[in-house]
Amino acid sequence: MLRTKTCGELRIDDCNSKVTLCGWVQKVRDLGSMTFIDLRDRYGITQLVCNVDTDKNLYEQSKTLSREYVLQVTGTVRERSNKNKNIPTGDIEIEVSQINVLNTAKLPPFTIEDNTDGGDELRMKYRYLDLRRPVIRKNLEQRHRLAQLIRNYLSDENFLEIETPFLIRSTPEGARDFVVPSRMNPNQFYALPQSPQQYKQLLMVSGFDRYFQIVKCFRDEDLRADRQPEFTQIDCEMSFVEQEDVLNMFEGLIKHLFEKEKGITFDKFPRMTWQDAMKYYGSDKPDLRFDMKFTELNDVAKGKGFSVFDDAELVVGICAKGCAGYTRKQLDALTEFVKRPQVGAKGLVYIKYNEDGTFKSSIDKFYSQEDLMKFADKFGADKGDLMLVMSGKTMQVRTQLCALRLEMGTQLNLRDPFNYAVTWVTDFPLLEWNEEDQRFYAMHHPFTAPNPEDYPEMLDKDPGKVRAWAYDLVINGTEVGGGSVRIHNRDMQMRMFEALGFTKEAALAQFGFLMGAFEYGAPPHAGLAFGFDRLCAIFAGADSIRDFIAFPKNNSGRDLMSDSPNYIDQKQLDELYLSLVPVEKQ
Amino acid sequence: MLRTKTCGELRIDDCNSKVTLCGWVQKVRDLGSMTFIDLRDRYGITQLVCNVDTDKNLYEQSKTLSREYVLQVTGTVRERSNKNKNIPTGDIEIEVSQINVLNTAKLPPFTIEDNTDGGDELRMKYRYLDLRRPVIRKNLEQRHRLAQLIRNYLSDENFLEIETPFLIRSTPEGARDFVVPSRMNPNQFYALPQSPQQYKQLLMVSGFDRYFQIVKCFRDEDLRADRQPEFTQIDCEMSFVEQEDVLNMFEGLIKHLFEKEKGITFDKFPRMTWQDAMKYYGSDKPDLRFDMKFTELNDVAKGKGFSVFDDAELVVGICAKGCAGYTRKQLDALTEFVKRPQVGAKGLVYIKYNEDGTFKSSIDKFYSQEDLMKFADKFGADKGDLMLVMSGKTMQVRTQLCALRLEMGTQLNLRDPFNYAVTWVTDFPLLEWNEEDQRFYAMHHPFTAPNPEDYPEMLDKDPGKVRAWAYDLVINGTEVGGGSVRIHNRDMQMRMFEALGFTKEAALAQFGFLMGAFEYGAPPHAGLAFGFDRLCAIFAGADSIRDFIAFPKNNSGRDLMSDSPNYIDQKQLDELYLSLVPVEKQ
User: Fold this and answer.
1) B151 inside 8 A of chain A by CB
2) Are residues B130 and B196 in the same domain?
3) What is the pLDDT of residue A223?
4) What's the predicted TM-score (pTM) here?
5) Which among A372, B52, B391, B460 counts the fewest CB atoms within 10 Å?
6) Nearest beta carbon to residue B41 from set A126, A199, A207
7) Quick check: A202 pLDDT over 90?
8) In the predicted model, what is the mean pLDDT of chain B?
9) For B405-416, what is the mean pLDDT?
10) What is the DSSP string of A116-183?
């Protein structure tokens, strides 16, 4: 080893011991007769001192050092006169006797500090320097610890981690695949897995009983902010279980992670049906860090001559506690907020329940004080509250009001990232109508089992109404995982493909091997997958997943550091029996 | 849960308890008035009994069951009259009160037993049934345990598991890349990693200090037997270390695995230089389960008029203890063995040291008994031994004699797969001359550091002689891992690329980001990688890695189960700006 100690471990008890440290120069301060150097490694920072009186040559050498030089330093630990209580090594410093410059460094293009002066592009291009910043290092350290906790917990529960293949068969159903041309099978392609879904189901057919994998998955989608073409999933499956068993098992896992990593304990996670989540929060991933539930108002809102409400399918609102004092300007800003194209509402009605018991609203023309009192009763509003009401088509207005609710939560500081509100959302619809393609798509995926109360009758009568045995885990308004009970019966699976508009031939061509497996004794099974990048971000109270991935790509799917993707040799193309189509030609 | 117990856990103490089991029908035996059913799950096999006298309907139902049906069975545990000492549940059976058929099964195309009647192709096509065989299940269970042991060991040693990207930049150096066309960056391609080499080095530049990852890697090579296009590596890197530190750290890991998984302890692993490995075993991965070291014989073999030896660069042989009794037929077979094209020798000389002290050899015409005694002295041969001698160009004859040595080891039963002989091989040459391309290639990879005793002088004078700080771990004649100290100095790295025939521009174009990183303070670092599939096979005493991978591909890189790779839609090709070149056109 080139060192005897790390830069994070020396304490007052180590005084007078001789040590060798290795690390990077964080800072050099020359005080004229002595130099202070902060030496940094993964484990911490230790202060080095070179004194002109003790060793003139060493002092002169120390002045030539610069930020991010790599040093091997030998010296004696001594007590600091001026202690730094902010760092664990702040009681000591090293009186240096020898400095060995292991490598020099150009001046980095941005500062290596938690609050760096580097912009996004620059940080991505020099990601290896960005990763030196303690804040990012801590993210990846936490990611490692979480992965370890997950693996050990699931292993203790008899789950086996089994690696499934990365070069698999492309299936047009679902999101777009990344494909990989095969040289040995010319003109044919592999696909990279969007998830190991079919393989984990096959493992259940094989009798593996409990499977998990922390595994990379791939989706070639147009990248919205904070999506990555490759992402990591905690993928799990169990046999001989029902929905309840899966929820309990993975609730146990998530609680374990919170307890071990953050010291937070939870009661039983609440559960909410998809129908209630939509009705009360306008979202299948409700943010339950604050209440502000939706109140439906059709009975008090309609019939008073206000055509906007009268013509609406649904009038629905939220009550912001203690916000009756909102100014005109604040209310206008809220109206502007819901009218933004991202939300798309036509307008917003407010009703202030003033401290003096009177109401002031934007619909005073149509509604008397008594009428507005009925609104307040519906909301359970108190004096001083602000009621915000929207109207329109049911699903649309719910989504719009959801955006407003979240905005109010933010404005009222009700969305502390470290206040964790966890819930299961259950009873998702099995199918989702797609207007554009004029067909149903599987809401979760085509292997999800229908709720037997709705099958087969409802699937024939009103497919959109069939509930699935599908569930999501939601933390602070973010879906961190989801899964379902799977179909394990070949006939039911065929019936599902039919409902999704597949011909029998198409279904067999694409999913034949899974369908085949179902004929040889498939057990009842169910599972779920968590988004690991997202889970890591939530544990650190962060919004973006990018700084929880060592080498992420930008929104065009590019790695700015290695300038990838890039062009390949004609020889490589020839070997793959491929030619490029010029972009302008298409 | 659909069960209260598994099929592997009931014991005599559980008698009289009521249980529900789930599993697959392994076997049904109808004895006329009662049926015995073996029910199998991942955890074991439990015997079920249905008695016509107890429940006639149930008995009738039990006769309709067939192999691989999936059952949920309720009944009472009772002591067996006819105990089966071969299985842990052999003391008990279940007196069945209810059978619920969870799924039926077609008759499998081969038997679900360790010694199956299924051929390779059939087993691959129905891999989900093949995986039901206990022998394969145990392989994957062991793989899971090994991965857990590795992760926990390395975590305890402060290593962080950090995920590196799968969609990276293609580099023509090294083996052939699998490439992935980018839709968002038309005509450009990602590559799948052959190893995370550059990324783990960047992590060291980032200060992560100790990194590991159990990770899939990809190589588009013509598949020799027992190679897979995707394989799993235990990838590791450390900063501020020298070769000795890496060897000690990972020797500790391997010892830990042997102790925990197999109860085998080792002394310090022996070390052998590459030069000695070649000289004494003719291979850089010597099988040390048996001795039979090479003996070089030039001084006793030459100058006696036998031109084959006189003209050879090297005369070298092995001594097979106690084999002087080999018959003419056996010796002819050995000669045939070395003459096979895979070995490629011209012939084989034998010298029997008979029990009566005389010698009998195939070169009696040229060598007197006294001459042959000199051979025997060289070999340290005893009466009753057989000396086998070959000659030719040094490297060639060593390789040929290595094949013969392994063959003799096999014939003499000296290669027990559960007798583990481990060794480090060190001091590999830095460069390897390629006749075809008339250039040097990096023997390990272009980032390997030269031994400072040989650098820079020897690199100029005789590049092929430069020793690298590179090392392999060899178990039972198989390379299970290897690594090197890396170059961390930009100038030395440029000098290496130069020696490999890169222009400065080409080196920068391909490895610019790593070269760039070296300018910002790269620490001294070193690492290694183990082949995880191979390691798993060795732990199970197996030759082939295929049954240690859940869903392997065949020798054409095909997955026979999903029939992959396969053709993709024209729409997918269009989106990727690609067109296919018909195979006959090229």
Assistant:
1) yes
2) yes
3) 72
4) 0.96
5) B460
6) A207
7) yes
8) 95
9) 97
10) -S--HHHHHHTHHHHTTSHHHHHHHHHHHHHHHHHHHHHHHTT-EE-PPPSSB---SSSSPPPEEE-S
Q: Say if A174 falls within a structural domain.
A: yes
Task: Describe the crossing of helices A197-205 and A504-517 by its angle, rounded to 10 degrees.
Answer: 50
This complex has an ipTM of 0.96
Digit-coded pLDDT (tens) for B362-373: 999 999 999 999
How far from A222 is each of A227, B166, B564, CA to CA, in Å? 9, 18, 26
**Distance from A225 to chain B by nearest Cα, in Å?**
15
Amino acid letter, B260: K
Taking residues A84-101, report their average pLDDT.
97
Chain B residues 527-556 within an 8 A CB cutoff of chain A: 549-551, 553, 556
Question: A1-25: per-residue pLDDT in tens?
Answer: 999 999 999 999 999 999 999 999 9
Tell which of A71, A103, A135 closes a domain: A103
Mean pLDDT computed over B96-115 = 96
The domain that holds A314 is classified in CATH as 3.30.1360.30
Tokens coding A28: 């050099």
Size of interface A-B (CB pairs under 8 A): 368
Query: Is the domain of A235 the same as that of A305?
Result: no
The reply to whether B98 and B123 lie within a common domain is no
Indicate if the pLDDT at residue A504 is higher than 90.
no
Q: With a cut of 90, say whether residue A547 has pLDDT above it.
A: yes
Residues of B in contact with A580 (CB under 8 A): 187, 577-579
Answer whether B138 touches A (CB < 8 Å).
no
Tell me what pLDDT residue A174 has. 75
Inter-chain contact B180–A178, Cβ cutoff 8 Å?
yes
- Within a domain: A555: yes
pLDDT (tens digit per residue) in A286-307: 999 999 999 999 999 999 999 9
Yes or no, beta carbons of B218 and A166 under 8 Å apart: yes
Chain B residues with beta carbon closer than 8 angstroms to that of A40: 207
Give the one of B155, B180, B583 whose C-beta lies nearest to A577's C-beta.
B583
For residues B249 and B366, state if they share a domain: no
Q: What is the DSSP string of A23-45?
A: EEEEEEEE-SSEEEEEEEETTEE
Which residue among B127, B245, B519 sits closest to A106, beta carbon to beta carbon? B519
B29 in contact with A at a CB cutoff of 8 Å?
no
Whether residues A305 and A373 share a domain: the answer is: yes
Whether residue B337 sits in one domain with residue B257? no
Q: pLDDT tens digits for A363-382?
A: 999 999 999 999 999 999 99
Q: What confidence tier does B168 reach under pLDDT thresholds 50, 70, 90?
A: very high
Q: What is the dihedral of CA A153, A157, A158, A162, to 10 degrees?
A: -40
Q: Is the CB of B175 inside 8 Å of chain A's CB atoms? A: no
Range of the domain at B74: 12-103
* B chain contacts of residue A246, beta-carbon cutoff 8 Å: none
Residue at A366 is within a domain:
yes
Mean pLDDT calculated for residue range A237-263:
98
**Of the residues B352, B384, B411, which one is the last residue of a structural domain?**
B411
Tokens representing A464? Answer: 């959109």
Nearest to A30 by CA among A72, A79, A64, A76: A64
Q: Examine the domain organization and report whether A192 and A239 are in the same domain.
A: yes
Q: How many domains does chain A have?
A: 3
Amino acid at A339: K
Half-sphere exposure for B307 (CA within 13 Å, toward CB):
0
Query: Looking at the predicted structure, is the pLDDT value of residue B585 above 60?
Result: no
For residue A70, give the CATH number of its domain. Answer: 2.40.50.140
Q: Which chain A residues are closer than 8 Å to B103 by Cβ?
A: 488-489, 518, 521-524
Which residues on neighbouring strands pair with residue A525, listed in sequence order? A239
Residues B84 and B137 reside in one and the same domain: no
Substitution target in A19, A144, A249 with the highest count of B β-carbons within 10 Å is A144
Residue B51, pLDDT score: 95
- The minimal CB distance from A207 to the residues B132, B198, B230 is found for B132
Nearest CB to B2; choose among A160, A524, A568: A524
If you average pLDDT over residues B35-54, what whole number do you get? 97
- What's residue B172's pLDDT? 72
Residue found by looking up tokens 């099988």 in the block: B287
- Look at residue A586 and tell me whether its pLDDT is greater than 80: no
8 Å CB contact between A404 and A411: no
- Angle formed by the axes of helices B504-518 and B490-499, nearest 10°: 150
Residue B147 in domain: yes
